[in-house]
Write a structure and sequence with these properties.
Elements lengths: L30 E2 L2 E6 H13 L9 E3 L5 E6 L13 E3 L6 E2 L10 E4 L10 H20 L2
Antiparallel strand pairs: 1-6, 2-4, 2-5, 3-4, 3-7
Length: about 150
């Protein structure tokens, strides 16, 4: 199970099942080295739309949502948490251990918004940062029109 700190701007450590080399029950054998960027759902969903409409639709990797659909999580390359500083978001380290990507999401009560593909690429942090910035501007503009 993945344990995630949800405070905006926090840098916490994600934990995964014991790294004994054997996958935990119900998990796939493939591991994806990654960190996890979490954002409020409204901004995250807008960013997913922006990334999927882009010229390179493959620029978005697997995306999680929590059971309450309040938070969206993007899988990004390991080490991203070391320099992640996007306001209103958090980047959780996996300490280079990677997550084992099963058909079911790694956190209880979560679900895949975009499930991992065969090669399960992660989202480029620079591309994600740009999409999150654009999403924040779009949301602010929409809110100011009310």
């Amino acid at each position: 199970m993945l344990h995630i700190g949800t405070e905006a701007g926090s840098r916490t450590t994600a934990t995964t099942p014991a790294a004994s080399g054997a996958p935990a029950p119900g998990q796939d054998h493939g591991a994806i080295p990654c960190d996890l960027v979490t954002v409020p759902a409204r901004q995250g969903l807008e960013a997913v739309d922006i990334l999927r409409r882009g010229a390179d639709q493959e620029s978005v990797g697997p995306v999680l949502h929590d059971g309450a659909c309040a938070i969206v999580g993007f899988l990004v390359p390991p080490g991203t948490a070391d320099a992640w500083d996007v306001p209103g978001s958090a980047c959780t380290r996996t300490d280079g251990r990677g997550l084992r990507m099963p058909a079911e999401p790694p956190a209880t009560g979560s679900g895949w918004l975009l499930p991992p593909g065969e090669d399960a690429p992660v989202t480029d942090p620079a591309v994600l940062r740009a999409a999150l910035d654009q999403a924040a501007r779009l949301i602010e503009a929409a809110d100011n029109r009310r």
